[in-house]
């Protein structure tokens, strides 16, 4: 995630359709991303999203980088993934 001080992570359907906890999005966040259930509840009911630093802290994103460092960070992550 590019951290330009205004980036947020959110569920795209939340502001328009509302969200029913437990119907898929919450399950994906807790089971696949291993986000704590209390944090997932907050995430899934906050339409404005979660800023980059908090998203990283809550395990919603794997990496954050400043705009100028994003290219180097993504190249490094790609080489690490290909080495696996």
Structure report:
By secondary structure, this protein is mainly α. The chain contains 5 helices and 2 strands, in the order βαααβαα. A two-stranded antiparallel ribbon has the order 1-2. The model has no long low-confidence stretch (mean pLDDT 81).
**Strand content bin:** under 5%
Name the strands of the widest sheet in spatial order. Answer: 1-2
Determine the structural class based on helices, strands and strand pairing: mainly alpha
Kindly provide the radius of gyration, computed on alpha-carbon positions and rounded to a whole number of angstroms: 14 Å
Q: Uncertain segments of ≥5 residues (pLDDT<50)?
A: none
Query: Secondary-structure element order, as H and E?
Result: EHHHEHH
User: What is the total tally of β strands?
Assistant: 2
How is the topology of this model organized?
Elements: E1 8-9, H1 14-17, H2 25-31, H3 37-44, E2 50-51, H4 52-57, H5 70-83
Antiparallel strand pairs: 1-2
Helix pairs in contact: 2-3
